[in-house]
Design goal:
The complex is a heterodimer.
Chain A (H helix, E strand, L loop, with lengths): L4 E5 L5 H14 L2 E9 L8 H30 L6 E8 L1 H11 L4 E5 L5 H6 L2 H8 L3 E5 L1
Parallel strand pairs in A: 1-2, 1-4, 2-3, 4-5
Chain B lengths: L2 H22 L5 H20 L10 H16 L3 H4 L1 H9 L13 H12 L2 H14 L2 H26 L2 E2 L5 E2 L2 H11 L3 H38 L11 H16 L4 H28 L1 H16 L7 H17 L5 H6 L7 H8 L1 H20 L14 E2 L4 E2 L8 H9 L5 H32 L3 H20 L2 H43 L8
Antiparallel strand pairs in B: 1-2, 3-4
Helix pairs in contact in B: 1-2, 2-21, 3-8, 3-21, 5-16, 6-16, 6-17, 6-19, 7-14, 7-17, 7-18, 8-9, 8-13, 8-14, 8-16, 8-17, 8-21, 9-10, 9-21, 10-11, 10-19, 10-20, 10-21, 11-19, 11-20, 12-13, 12-17, 12-19, 17-18, 19-20
The chains are: A alpha/beta, B mainly alpha.
């Protein structure tokens, strides 16, 4: 099917999920949207000093995420012939992946099986969250 | 480093050091010496701030705050009631642009400002008000809390509107900035600058007083209380508690160890919930007495029930402790609120008006109801009037205690283990309030002396010294100085607010029009 869009949730470490999604996109003629989420809750508690410096920190965090996380992975996709777009967002990881999938009308979601600790199993991890609520087919890459 | 910066440090040390030395030679204890010295230094300032109107016992400063809050309430058309629901929607993030995620949210600004105000004022301050002014003080405290919402709305809107945004993205805001910039816009730059400098001086004193010494003092009182009262090794040795707390504060604000502050910021809201939860349980256990307690509160508010000064005494105490607890009109919260990321300064005003509501109308009222209902205030069984303890200057209490110990005794009468929880809460509240006020004071200090590592370090070290002094002094002189410094901030701030309130009104009208027309949209959640 031409014109399909695959959403790749990239946590910054698990490059395998990106190349796996790129391979599938290439065979199917789909394009990729790489999403990196910086975990953030508007209901967390900060000290007055942190409040005053928050905008500065956010700017720094975004620059770092772009340089260290996004730029290298986008570079690795160069020459694959797959059309790639990307975004870095703040918020709850699962909510943002689902929200982006809906906004962009993505056809599939690719996510790495990050976090397999006991805590993740008890409290839920990103793949488990997506398995429960994803609006489209979701591939969990081990 | 200029002389004017070193001068206060030297003056303070020269006052204290000889006395510490004298104490070593079997003279009066260190605590007594600190008490006498600081009491003498702060006395005239305290007397001026609390001077009564000629021929009356009514302090002019209390009238000043009440008139201010009333003027703002009327000028903005009872905004605290009209905008209450919208304020909650803003805190929930209903109007926040998702693309701004990662910036300071309305909730975070509110939570941080609240952790600076919810503290000992709510626990110990209320006990002081009710034990001196009787249950009727609660009525006036609630009224002052409701009116104060309008003062807070005004100052926090201005705090965001006139903050300084630096090239690196950090912000500085608060009365110093709106007094200078806002009044400058109106062609009153000279008055604005004078007010800003005065405010900064009082803010530094306030950060040492109410934001610090009072906190250390009451944290120590509760620690003595749970470690055996007068037989405790801490009894009469406030400086030990002071040094311990000062060391931790030092590690956080000088050492930059944010993890301690982060833990506190997370634990404090839970302690507040546990505190209110325990109060609610006690009220439910005594549900049959709630009607009677409110009866006492109303009766005490308008009639003489045996307390000093009758209804005027109740009114003064209620207003004083409300202002001390929620800081409405004082200008401190405008410093914390000014960091929020919003295109509309007025939205932060709406959010901030919830602060006196949560702090005073909810939490302080809970404390007052528990104290009244549990019967720790002694009454004459025949007349039902409260018994006055002239020596202590308050109503006679069970166990003869006042301040935080009275609140502790009231909760203990229902839950024997509560004093321990309260001690943890008191220490944590004290600590988070100190961290907040160290920041407020620092902002005022750098406004006066300029930013720089050495300048900031001097302030921080002085701040820690005052922790020790506060823990060592008696409650009386500490409360007087704390109140005086914080009320002095309100004097300057409210003058500025009168000049600047038309600017807030223009912002308010513009915002409400756009909200009505749908230009300001609600983001779906």
């Amino acid at each position: 099917m031409p014109g399909q869009l695959f959403l790749v949730a990239y946590d910054g470490e698990d490059g395998g999920v990106v190349s796996y999604a790129a391979d599938h996109a290439k065979t199917m003629g789909a394009s990729l949207h790489v999403l990196h989420v910086l975990e953030w809750s508007p209901y967390s508690f900060l000290t007055p000093e942190e409040l005053a410096e928050r905008h500065k920190r956010r700017t720094e965090e975004l620059a770092r995420a772009n340089d260290i996380v996004m730029a290298p992975i986008l570079k690795s996709l160069n020459g694959t012939g797959v059309e790639v777009s990307s975004d870095i967002r703040y918020g709850n990881v699962v909510d943002l992946i689902i929200g982006t999938a809906k906004d962009k009308e993505a056809d599939m979601i690719f996510v790495g099986r990050s976090g397999n600790s006991l805590a993740d199993r008890v409290f839920g991890s990103v793949p488990i969250g997506l398995a429960q609520a994803a609006p489209v087919a979701t591939v969990i890459v081990p | 480093m200029s002389y004017r910066m070193i001068a206060p440090v030297l003056a303070l040390l020269s006052l204290l050091l000889p006395r510490f030395a004298a104490a070593q030679n079997g003279a009066p204890s260190i605590d007594e010496q600190i008490n006498a010295t600081v009491g003498a230094v702060t006395g005239p300032f305290v007397s001026f701030i609390f001077a009564p109107f000629p021929g009356t016992t009514f302090p002019w400063i209390v009238m000043w705050l009440v008139v201010g809050a009333t003027v703002f309430t009327i000028y903005f058309g009872f905004i605290q009631f009209r905008a209450f629901a919208h304020s909650i929607a803003l805190v929930k993030g209903d109007y926040s642009d998702p693309n701004d995620a990662g910036e300071v949210s309305h909730f975070q600004a509110l939570a941080t400002a609240l952790s600076g105000t919810v503290g000992l004022g709510n626990i110990a301050g209320v006990a002081v008000a009710v034990s001196i002014g009787g249950p009727g003080a609660t009525f006036w405290m609630i009224l002052a809390g409701l009116m104060g919402m309008a003062s807070k709305f005004t100052e926090c809107t201005l705090g965001v509107k006139y903050r300084n945004e630096y090239a690196d993205g950090s912000v500085s805001g608060g009365p110093m900035y709106y007094l200078t910039k806002g009044m400058g816009e109106q062609g009153r730059g000279a008055i604005g600058r004078v007010l800003a400098v005065l405010f900064a001086i009082f803010c530094i004193l306030g950060s040492w007083g109410g934001g610090n010494m009072f906190q250390a003092n009451q944290a120590h009182a509760q620690l003595v209380n749970i470690t055996g009262g007068e037989s405790s090794f801490l009894s009469g040795n406030g400086w030990i508690t002071g040094v311990v707390i000062a060391t931790i504060v030092f590690i956080v604000i000088v050492g930059g160890i944010k993890s301690i502050a982060k833990v506190t910021e997370k634990v404090v809201p839970f302690m507040a919930l546990i505190y209110v939860g325990a109060a609610v349980v006690i009220l439910i256990m005594n549900a049959d007495k709630i009607g009677w307690a409110f009866g006492q509160i109303f009766a005490g508010a308008f009639t003489d029930v045996g307390v000093a000064g009758g209804l005027v005494g109740a009114l003064i105490q209620g207003f004083k402790r409300a202002a001390f607890s929620n800081e409405a009109g004082v200008g401190s919260a405008a410093i914390a609120h000014s960091a929020v990321r919003t295109k509309e300064p007025i939205t932060e005003g709406f959010v901030s008006l919830l602060e006196p509501f949560i702090d005073t109308v909810v939490i302080c009222t809970m404390t007052a109801l528990v104290i009244v209902i549990t019967g720790v205030l002694n009454t004459d069984p025949e007349t039902g009037r409260y018994l006055w303890d002239a020596e202590a200057g308050r109503i006679a209490t069970a166990g003869g205690v006042g301040g935080v110990e009275l609140t502790s005794a009231a909760f203990e009468s229902s839950f024997s283990w509560f004093p321990f929880i309260l001690a943890i809460a008191v220490v944590l509240f004290a600590f988070s309030t100190m961290i907040s006020w160290s920041y407020y004071g620092l902002k005022a200090w750098t406004y006066l002396f300029g930013e720089g590592k050495v300048t900031e370090l001097i302030f921080k070290i002085l701040f820690c010294i005052f922790v020790v002094i506060g823990a060592a002094m008696n409650l009386g002189p500490v409360i007087d100085f704390s109140d005086a410094a914080i009320f002095a901030m309100a004097v300057v701030n409210i003058i500025g607010l009168y000049f600047l309130m038309p600017i807030v009104k223009a912002e308010l009208n513009s915002y409400l029009d756009r909200l009505k027309s749908g230009e300001i949209k609600r983001y779906a959640h």
